[in-house]
Specification:
single chain; 2 domains; two-stranded antiparallel ribbon
Length: 276
């Protein structure tokens, strides 16, 4: 087997593993979703801290992990229906644990400046919100029975954007955002957008739901998902790296696999509140 096909095979297996893990989490219920994406949030907070530190933003691990842990734990539990007093208590514990782990990492990395600036504080808090809040909102979407369609729409958009985009010769492609992600094209984006709407329509028909509303839901999720992908690509380009991590082999890091979800989840919650 050639190295190229072996690489494709490995990527396919890892991608399938991610799909199976997410699918099992959704099927097992709210607490499985909370636990699964708690793990994703923990790894994602580590990756975003590394990403922002690499671009000279002066972030602090203790603030990223502490704020992110508290936000995910407290927000996720409240969205799961746990009484506020218990959610706040667990959030405090998670925040303190994250702060302690971050302090340990900071002590080991003595090359970093020890103080924190206003800009460093802002970027640290943004890193926590950027990763932890959208993943906590997935608990809400599971309770609203919108988590399957959200992921199916995002996956359909990603797959067909790649398939359609790669079917054009490079010289025939129109770059979507050449300074941020040179590989993405308008042709691929259009293919992914159409596939996302088709996925939304099929989901609505199969589940007896309003077709027009779910087509609109899919359209918004697809567009916002592409923006989420481009935002993470922007952060990686500023840090001068190709992938956010190496955990998922050819798929990169956790953020590389869930970057679209980080903007699509808040959009899906807003759409659910307003329209569905």
């Amino acid at each position: 087997m050639s190295a190229k096909f072996q690489k494709i095979g490995n990527r396919s297996l890892i991608g399938l593993g991610v799909v199976v893990a997410v699918g099992l989490g959704i099927e097992l219920g709210v607490w499985a979703v909370f636990g699964l994406f708690g793990l994703v949030a923990a790894i994602g907070l580590y990756e975003i801290r590394q990403l922002f530190a690499g671009s000279g933003r002066g972030v602090k691990a203790w603030l990223v992990y502490g704020a992110g842990g508290a936000l995910y734990a407290g927000g996720g539990l409240m969205l799961a229906g746990v009484p506020t007093v218990w959610a706040v208590g667990v959030a405090a514990v998670a925040g303190l644990l994250g702060l302690a782990l971050g302090c340990v990492q900071e002590r080991r990395n003595r090359k970093q400046p020890q103080g924190i600036t206003a800009a460093g504080c802002w970027w640290s808090l943004w890193a926590a919100v950027y990763v932890a809040l959208p993943l906590a909102l997935l608990v809400w979407l599971r309770r609203a029975d919108l988590l399957w369609p959200l992921f199916i729409i995002i996956w359909a958009s990603d797959v067909f954007a790649y398939v359609v985009g790669s079917s054009f010769r490079e010289e025939k492609r129109h770059k979507l955002a050449p300074r941020i992600s040179p590989a993405k094209s308008w042709e691929g984006a259009c293919g992914g957008f159409c596939a996302a709407i088709a996925a939304g329509v099929v989901w609505a028909v199969c589940n007896g739901l309003p077709v027009t509303l779910f087509a609109a839901f899919a359209a918004v999720v697809a567009v916002v998902g592409v923006l989420g992908d481009l935002l993470e690509s922007h952060y990686k380009r500023q840090a001068g790296i190709k992938d956010s991590g190496t955990l998922l082999g050819g798929h990169g890091g956790i953020l590389d696999r869930f970057d679209s979800i980080l903007l699509a989840a808040p959009a899906a919650v807003l759409l659910q509140i307003i329209c569905l």
